[in-house]
Amino acid sequence: MGPIEIIATSIGGIVVLFTLLYLLQFVGLYVQAWVSGAKVGFLDLVMMRFRKVKPRIIVENRITAKKAGLDIPTAVLEAHFLAGGRVTNVVRSMIAADKAHIELPWETSAAIDLAGRDILEAVRTSVNPKVIDCPDQATGRSTIDAVAKDGIQLKARARVTVRTNIARLVGGATEETIIARVGEGIVSTIGSAESHLKVLENPDNISRTVLEKGLDAGTAYEILSIDIADMDVGENIGAKLQVHQATADEKRFQAEAEKRRAMAVAQEAEFKAEAQKNRAVVILQEAEIPKAMADAFRSGHLGVMDYERLKNIQSDTSMRGSIAGDSSTTTGGA
Predict the structure, then answer these.
(1) pLDDT digits (tens, 9 = 90+) for 69-86
(2) Which of 172, 286, 288, 194 lies closest to 238 in space, CA to CA?
């Protein structure tokens, strides 16, 4: 053989060796699937690598499903993997649903998984209902506070038992909605009670009323029961409100009284000013009397004797006023 043939043969041998080594990694998976009764084509295993699919995940989940009595095609598993789904979660959820006699087709399970929900946890909750605290302890509140019609505050804490409704899992509301609706139902039930004593005597009325409202509509859960875990008597909110109202009324009445007092003071000041004004007019008129008397003297209409008689009359009037103690009758001399 010439040098060229030797080089070509060497390159060909290396290619064949690397090809055999590459294909050898699929032999174990192929034999494992064939022995388990979940046969997967050898060529399919090779093509999975080119399609960026992990062959081991597909083979192991197909074998798991087959042993559990489910025959899931390899193409379906590959499609879900390529779509970004969690193949292992979906297969396990279908196995759990099948054992619990829950109808869960592949399309529904895959759709729920691609929607971002934990389908395996949902199936587990359907089989084994879970308990939700209301209110949620993570919010920092330990009770739901409401006030009855008699003004007494009640503090309640409930525990809601729910199970997943797989048919409403896609698009259904989550636990937060259940907690909010149950809290609203508790508040409305306590608020409509005539007395807080009736609520304390029959706390099961709250559970019955809340359940009758169908608070689980539009959610991903079905409410099985609502249990009032604890209920305490809080403050007398009605009495506090009455005290605040009385204080506000007192301040309002004081303000109105102060307003009336200020108006009376202002009116009194107006009357005094008016009196001073009238007094000034009187003084001006009295100042005209001497002038009139002087004119009368000059014109001869008033004589000395007439003036003396006028002075005597004024003196007599002033004396009578002093005796009577009435200063208003005293007049000054002209």
Answers:
(1) 888 888 899 999 999 999
(2) 194
Tell me the residue type at 120: L
Structure tokens at 229: 């875990």
pLDDT at res. 168? 80
Whole-number average pLDDT of the chain: 82
Among the three residues 65, 94, 127, which one is the final residue of a domain in this structure?
Answer: 127
- For residues 7 and 123, state if they share a domain: yes
DSSP string, 40-94: --HHHHHHHHHTT--HHHHHHHHHHHHHTT----HHHHHHHHHTT--HHHHHHHH
Q: Which two tokens stand for residue 262?
A: 């200020």
Q: Which domain holds residue 158?
A: 130-236
Report the number of distinct structural domains present in the chain.
Answer: 2
What is the bridge-based pairing of β-strands 144-147 and 152-164?
antiparallel
In a domain, 289, yes or no: no
Statement: residue 326 has pLDDT above 60: no
| Listed residue (24, 29, 19) closest to 53, CA to CA | 29
DSSP-derived secondary structure for 134-148 = ES-GGGT---EEEE-
Three-state DSSP state, 253: helix
